[in-house]
Structure formats: C-alpha cells, structure tokens
Amino acid sequence: MKGGGGAELPRWKYIYMLLESFRKVVLPILTLVLLVKITFSSYNTTTDSLLQNLETTLNKSVPFDQQKHEAITQLQSVGITSINHSEKVGKKQKTCNIFVGKWISYPNGPYYTNETNCAIDDRQNCMKFGRPDRDFIHWRWKPDDCELPLFDAMQFLELVRDKTLAFVGDSLARNQMQSLVCLLASAAIPVDVSETKDARFRRWLYKDYNFAIIALWSPQLIKSYESDPNGYSYNSLMDLYLDEADDVWASQVHKADTVIISGGQWFFRPFLYYENGQLIGCHKCNEKNTTKLSHYYGYRMAFRTAFKTLLNLKRLKSRLVILRPFSPQHFENGEWNKGGNCNRTRPFTNQDIKLDGYTLQMYLTQLEEFKAAKREGNKRGVKFRLLDTSEAMLLRPDGHPNHYGHWPNEKKLADCVHWCMPGPVDTWNELLLSILKMEAE
Fold first, then answer.
1. Is residue 418 annotated as a catalytic residue, yes or no?
2. Which of 227, 313, 223, 236 is nearest to 277 (CA)?
3. What is the residue extent of each domain of the chain?
4. Which residue ranges does the record assign to the Trichome birefringence-like N-terminal domain (predicted)?
5. Domain 107-440 - what CATH class?
6. Is 283 tagged catalytic?
7. Strand 101-105 relative to strand 139-143: parallel, antiparallel, unpaired?
8. Which stretch of DSSP H or E encloses residue 331?
9. 123 and 129 in contact (C-beta within 8 Å)?
10. What is the pLDDT of residues 210-222, one digit of tens each?
11. What are the helix (H) ranges across 64-162?
12. What is the DSSP string of 136-159?
C-alpha cells in the first residue's frame, strides 16, 4: 500500500483513511436514507401503534411523562377521543375538541340545588349533609379553542323527543342520570314509571315529549356471580363470564335509541374468568393450576362483549352508542378503606396532574375496544361516540362527597369516587348535549 509519493503506508494508517472516508461520505448518505424512511413511515402511523406504545410503556411501570401526554393529544387530534364542536365565525367555521381544556372560575350559581324537585341520592347530596365550602360549584369547563354552551333544558328535551335514553353501568352511571333529571327540572318534571322500587333500575317518563330515561345497573356489564365460600364482601371472589352480557341490561337495551355505557370501579376485586363456560384464568385468586390474568384483561373483555351485544341488536341504523370512559377517583392520605379522603377544595390545573398509572391504562383499554366497535359500527350503521370526560374529571379532586354523603357524625368511609350534586358531574351532561346537537346537525 503506497502513498502519493510512492512510499508505502502503514496498514493502520490505511485503515484510518478508509474509516474517515466512510464517516465523511457513506455515513451521511445512510443517515439521509434513514431519515427519509422514518419521515415516510410516520405518515402511516395508526392509532393502534400509538396505543400499543403507550400500553407497552405502562407495562414496564415507567412513570407518566410528557411523551405519553403528547401521544394522547395525538390520539385526540386524529379523532379517536375527540368530538369536534363547530362554531360559525362570519363565513368561516372553526372546530375544537370540547374535551380538551381547563376549569375556570364561574361566579354564577349551579343549575339546581338540593331543594330542586328531582331525586338526588343522599350519598351525593353534599349540600344536605352540610359540606361547608361552596367553591366546588363555582367552576365551569372551558375548552381550549371554543366555549361550551350552558345546559339548555328545553333544547335537550326537543332533541330527544320521542326517544329513550338508557344509562348502562354502575352507580356513576346513575350519578350522571340523576344529574340529567335535575338539569331538566327547570323545564319539565318526569313521571316515575319504574317497574321496581330499586333505585338502581329507575325509569322516568317526560310525557309532553314522549321521552324516557332508563337506568340499568350492571357494574361489570357481563354475567357475574358471587362464588366465595365465605360470602360477599368488598374483596370476595366472583365468577365473571367474559363472553356473556349481563341480561339485566342486555334484555332491556333494545328499547333505547341512545345508550350511554360506562364502568370501571368494580373490576379490581378477585375474579375467576370464564369463556365458553370454561375457567380460563383468574385475577387475585389462590386457585392452583389456573392462569393468572390482570384485571385489565377482564375489563377489556367486558367492554368487548358489551359492544358486540349492542352491535347485534335489531334496528341498528337509528341507534347512538356513547361511551363515557373511566372516571378517576381521588383518595389521598390513605387507601379508600384505610383512612383515605379527598379534602381538596379547588381543582387541579393541567400542570398539576396527568392521566397515568392504572387510570391511564383503564382509559386506554376502553379506548381500544371503543375504536374497534366504532369501526364495526360504521359498517352496520350504528353510531359510536365518545363522551370523553376522563381528563376533565381528573382535575376535580374537590368535586367528591368525601365525608358529606352522610351526616358528619356517622363513622363511614369517605367517598372520593362519586360526584356531588350539583357539581362537576353536571358538566357530563353539558357535554352530552353538545354531542346530541352535533348529531342532529
């Protein structure tokens, strides 16, 4: 190996020159090719991959960070979690995601009080039981790019004339239903046409509008049976049939034109999981030779089965299915049964807290099943919409009954799961009205 002057170059120097040539010429070319490939492939990124990346990160127990929040924002921007609210400005029309925003101070009073002619469950009747502060009823949800209209009871009743609205889920679904009845009280008082005295299965009829509201209590959405030999308790073992919808709601829901489905807080207890009548695994059980599965698996399968049930109903084309995703709890200073409470009197800001941990995982699990059902619904003529309240409610640790869902001298657990009435839960129905208005348009 010789240099330009004819002298032979040492082997090491020759190799060095080759490496320098590679660094200066070949490496930049390879880098450019790789960047082009990444840029091109980014246009093909789907919501599936975004969800998968988020869930993979969560499974590795990495704390929530800005990257995950940006990924959720991207999900919202592609329409999976967003409902665009349109406002006409001159000849132009602007849209915004009504579920992305913040809570702002609102000096006016609430739409109703505990003295309004409507049914408020004592466990959420914070005014009746002497909650000393009132700031929690003086906040309104403000979307980032538009205004959320105030609730208009007359407008709501006109939109649902000759229809039936069903709330399917646990006591939080009932929380929203009772909020709606109270909000509508300024325009009309319904007749109780319930077939049972059990408040979990309430039916209200607005005769002048031929509009009915049905509450169908089904905390797991699928068939479940107590199976613990020691009897029922908060932590007792249950059989959960993952591929069979609960008849309590599945046998009644065909009567509804609009179905609001939700659930979440009942999926953390011990379960034996069954599919096709066979035991396939369990969560938090001591069964030998049984596959251990997370509660996320049961949660996913419950919503998959529920959505399939709704998709298989007759008279599909006029039906609207709305998912109200996971509602965060706010226990601090201990767990729910170990002295936990929610004493805060102001909302969080967006900088204070983000969806993370199991709350984010529950939310994303629902979102995946919702997206699959929405895709199938598009083929069959069933509309699936998202009432995306999770991030807004995460910011309201002040909105729970805490110890004011009963008399202060009663020694009972704090309630940091349900929502005071009036309170932040009324925002769910303001958002619901916006969805119904957009569907009507």
1. yes
2. 223
3. 107-440
4. 95-147
5. alpha beta
6. no
7. antiparallel
8. none
9. no
10. 999 999 999 999 9
11. 66-77, 153-159
12. GGSEEEEETTSPPPPP-HHHHHHH
